[in-house]
Design a protein that fits this description.
This protein has three domains: about 90 residues, no CATH class; about 110 residues, Quinolinate phosphoribosyl transferase, N-terminal domain (Aldehyde Oxidoreductase, domain 3, Alpha-Beta Complex); about 150 residues, TIM Barrel, CATH 3.20.20. Helices cover about 45% and strands about 15% of the residues. Strands 6-11-10-9-8-7 form a six-stranded parallel beta sheet. The chain contains 17 helices and twelve strands. With about 400 residues, it is α/β, with parallel strands linked by helices.
Length: about 400
């Protein structure tokens, strides 16, 4: 699991910014920084809505997370007005990078924010108004590959740090971990803690776990079809907004590899870039002049003429987009090892076998993240206990 360590750490950091984060902060002492510390919620709200974030942007990622968390916590104050919710939402968007902002307009963001804001979990508070210790079992309801267990656990510990997740043992005596094959009916874990936390955190924790496990399972199924070939399976940037780091992690757990994480990771010249530059050759030469020499340049091609032009211009990787198997075979012959090859365009587990014999270096599939069904997993058999054991 060492190769997944970086992803797990990143996921835990992002989970802090999830739906449970404001509960955690509510139980922490106020920040002692003299310039930002406030005595009550009114002064905190006033500070957050009036701070000039653009001219005084947080200096580190940690500071961005802390400020975002304070804004998120302020949403849920019982007396916050709709006007201040909008102001807080606009402040939060300033912290987003351009790619994240472009996933939805400001009006859409604010609308979704208002829709989801509530002051309490009415159902849970109705049946469990006070603290009672309890436990609930995490059970897999279909065969698959599990992924997202650290995120699942983090949701509950952010709600209440004393919550305990006891992982079940596999047949070989090891605790269940990400990447394990799981079976229908298998007990994965027992979660113990405040019954109110178990109930309130259930849906969010399962949403992450089901989604990531579904992606890992689907990726594993596709990767198995490539076994014995020289082709590497890649994902794409066709991910759920704000879920990319989780979903790309799940691809790795399932046996795939990551393509670019974002637009800063590498040069990939697609059809519109080529049109803007005036042609394949022009786009490649412009990229070579702009990007550091250590950056590989990939170009998307749709026909054999474009392939020839890409080879002659010195592309490092040539993507064969939506070509027939016959066209791809001829393109690979034309490239003749002078560039790496990548096949892309409507690649699914149902048709991937048609290209394995061609000898392409990479195959990228957006279906790994945008079409993978969830893995059915449930929290069942909740019971109230006299004390935490």
């Amino acid at each position: 699991m060492k190769k997944h360590l970086r992803w797990i750490i990143a996921i835990i950091v992002l989970a802090v910014m999830g739906v449970a984060y404001y509960y955690y902060l509510a139980n922490k002492p106020a920040d002692k920084d003299a310039t930002e510390s406030v005595a009550d919620s009114n002064s905190e709200l006033s500070y957050l809505v009036s701070r000039n974030i653009e001219d005084n942007y947080p200096e580190s990622v940690r500071d961005v997370v802390k400020l975002y968390a304070r804004i998120t916590k302020a949403y849920y104050e019982s007396d916050v007005s709709e006007e201040n919710i909008e102001k807080l939402g606009r402040q939060a968007r300033i912290l987003f990078d351009d790619e994240l902002k472009n996933t939805q307009t400001e009006d859409e963001f604010l609308s979704a924010l208002k829709e989801d804001i509530t002051s309490e979990d009415v159902s849970t508070n109705a049946v469990m108004p006070e603290y009672r210790a309890g436990e609930v079992e995490l059970i897999c309801k279909q065969d698959g590959v599990i992924a997202g267990l650290p995120v699942f656990e983090r949701v509950f510990t952010m709600l209440d740090a004393s919550t305990k997740v006891e992982w079940a043992k596999n047949q070989d005596g090891r605790e269940v971990k990400d990447g394990d094959a799981v079976k229908k009916g298998q007990l994965l874990a027992t979660v113990k803690g405040d019954v109110r936390v178990l109930l309130s955190g259930e849906r969010t924790a399962l949403n992450y776990l089901q989604r990531l496990s579904g992606i890992a399972t689907y990726t594993h199924q596709v990767a198995r079809l490539l076994e014995g070939s020289s082709t590497t399976l890649l994902d794409t940037r066709k991910t759920t907004p704000c879920m990319r780091i989780f979903e790309k992690y799940a691809v790795c757990v399932g046996g795939g590899q990551n393509h670019r994480y974002n637009l800063s990771d590498g040069v990939l010249l697609k059809d519109n870039h080529i049109d803007a530059a005036g042609g394949v050759k022009e786009a490649i030469l412009a990229a070579k002049a702009y990007a550091p020499f250590v950056r590989k340049i990939e170009v998307e091609t749709e026909n054999l003429d474009m392939v020839k032009e890409a080879v002659e211009a010195g592309a490092d990787i040539i993507m064969l987009d939506n070509m027939t198997p016959e066209q791809m075979s001829e393109a690979i012959r034309l490239i003749d090892g002078r560039a790496k090859t990548e096949c892309s365009g409507n690649i699914t587990k149902e048709n991937i076998k048609t290209i394995t014999a061609l000898g392409v270096d990479y195959v990228s599939s957006g279906a790994l993240t945008h079409s993978a069904p969830i893995l059915d997993i449930s929290l069942k058999h909740l019971k109230v206990t006299d004390s935490l054991q």
